[in-house]
Please model this.
Amino acid sequence: MLSEELIFDVSTNQSITFEELMVRLNSEAFYYEKWCYTSFYDFLVNFLKALINGRDITLLDKDFSNEELAKLGYSNSILIKHTLASTSPNITDKASLINKLTNSKSSVTFFTSGTTGIPKRIIHTIPTLTRMIRVGNNYKDNVWAIAYNPTHIAGVQVILQALFNGNRMVYAFETSGNELKRSIIERGITHISATPTFYRLLVSEKTSFPAIKRITLGGEKSDARLHKLLSISFPNSKINNIYASTELGSLFVTDCENFVVPASLADKVQVMEDELMVHSSLLSWQIEDEWYKTGDLVQVINTFPLTFKFQSRKNEMINTGGYKVNPNEVEEAIRSFKEVREVRVFGKPNSVLGNILCAEIVFYPDNHLENNEIFSRLKNILQEFKIPRIIKVLDKIEVTRTGKLSRK
Amino acid sequence: MQEKIQELIIMVLQHSNRYQPNIEFSALSRLREDLGLDSFNLAELTVHIEEEFGVDIFEEGLVITLGEIYSKLSSSH
Model:
């Protein structure tokens, strides 16, 4: 029966009830502290076993290669298996699971994927992971699409939001847009949380999902055109834009591009030299400085209450011939062409300029623009040094494990 | 090979609206002063030449004339 289903995995068609989950949580007296998991269900069972038993866990992507694991300091033998207490955690219903999760003293270690560079280790606790989670009667009938990587903080937050309200989860991270479109209808999905890149590959002016009640975007810059497309494709949905990072968890939420810092955080957030700074008391670990540099470049819209718009990651800026280019700005310009479905702008090492600006473009079906047309349109809206010199047309664009555009 | 290089130069100039139909190519043509390529055009040209011939013409430093590109490509083949 669909009503009893707790988890549905779109990629495998596997359907799991809460009772099946409960049996595994109560009977399996072991968990893996570090593990490149095999399926979403097994990942979830292992994650919950750690949490309800108060044990620490490190979340690793399922497709990490041995080389990547070595960079994180792990040898190939990553199956670190621990025996749990022989007494069952005695999960009898959803309330007892939520109670155990709420009071868990576990630490959860993430690796920030980043769009460039080497992954960084970030440790969270249940209080920091659940800071933005809302529980109540209004939420009890929600059905969530898990469209983030479950080993990354955004994915874990969606999982916890769903679990704390006993909601069904539809795992759709590794699926194509078409499979998700079908699942939205067949599984009754009402809530989606994903990156702007994910939505750009899902929606168009011709798609409409009236059953969706709320969509949430985070992790990347969104823009006015995407917001417009989303309001067409999700006509009955509220749209939330979240400011979050692996280091901080979720901090701010807005229904547009501008984030207003709430009064409760007014003395804990500031902008210095265009960079967003957050007071160290908001971090789940100790740092030497009083203020933590987020590495996010923002535009201040209003000073009181502090209101800002995300511009780019500091390390995303591409240096080309001595000019610093924000790839998000260029992508936004190219995305403003109605023929363009998705675009990725990145720097490629070049012997003349240091880096040459490149763009990969995916057009909507039956749409196309010649390179010369793209160049000449861009000349009207961008300074010349911001115009990508190498343009390739593709069927699909590469994204990072978090579902963001890759800057490599 | 020389024709292909000239084609690529014309394409790069067209991309940035710098193409003049009366352009004349000779081995002595200077890429910047005579053919009108700026540093962004040169960067683009190196990418296209590398894709076509597998040689980064600027790898070992400055290239002034069209003839220097020809000789770099012929010496590498």
The domain at 2-241 of chain A is CATH 3.40.50.12780 (Rossmann fold). The first helix of chain A runs from residue 18 to 27.
